[in-house]
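Attaching the record inline, Q. Sequence:
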Amino acid sequence: MKLNKKYAALVLAAFTTTATFAKTKVVTTIFPEYDWVLNIAGEKINEIDITLLLDNGVDLHSYQPSVKDIAKISTADIFIYVGGESDDWVKDVLRTSHNKKLKTINLLETLGERVKEEEIVEGMQLEDEDEDEEETEYDEHVWLSLRNTQILCSTICEALCSVNPTNALTYKANLTSYNARLSALDAEYTKACKDAKFNTLLFGDRFPLRYLTDDYGLKYYAAFAGCSAETEASFKTIAFLSSKVDELGLKSVCKIESGDGKIARTIIQSSKAKDASIVTFNSMQAVTKSDIKKGATYLGTMQSNLEALKKALGSN
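Structure, as predicted:
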């Protein structure tokens, strides 16, 4: 992706830490949060010292903070994190923090009733089938909904304005502009789904796109739930998903960016649709600092996911 000159300047400023004044310190766990702050801060990003904790490709579900990471959080003005089971470590960090001025933004808490329980759909590989039912788990992948993102960005803007009221008008103007772009892309998704030949996605992989499919009334089948640690699908799961490819006449099987495509290829080979394609969606769970410098953005990635969606659904 070619890096937009204005965005390139924001990225460069974000990675530049020298300053003669006290910067607002913002710590984010995952890339979408980081990119949202960049866009809301806009031309004032040089007044923010922003940290992306998961910047080396580590998946959200396996990340554990280092001593340096904990120190960053403890001295921050604003800390933004997802708030699901993968962030259980956050409770201990905040409990031991002596920073009484720290503002925290928990994405799941911010969204409240919009947050959905982790869902098991027909044919999905189950983990720990013989164990007793555990407490409810919530789907953490809230950032893959453009509609959720508008709510979350508004909350981030409020926090930035509270910490640095001098720049409040700039932050609010940038939020309005960014939310307009999110709304425009949301409209493109709506049109693509309306024009689609199919209304079902089939994933030979984990499925982190439940919020996205719910936004546009789509159905889905998948090998594993979004937060699953499983990597091998059973014969039963493969057989079920292959039969769905045939039953629905699907022309594509999907995977996420971290998947090797093995299960998707096996599903295709086990179906009658031998010429079906494999379509890759980007869940933005392991974006690196290098990816950002090369031009990775939240909106750009969601635009790429739209193209993947069109291909998977057979949109015109």
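The two ends are 24 Å apart (CA to CA). The longest strand covers residues 200-207.

More tomorrow.
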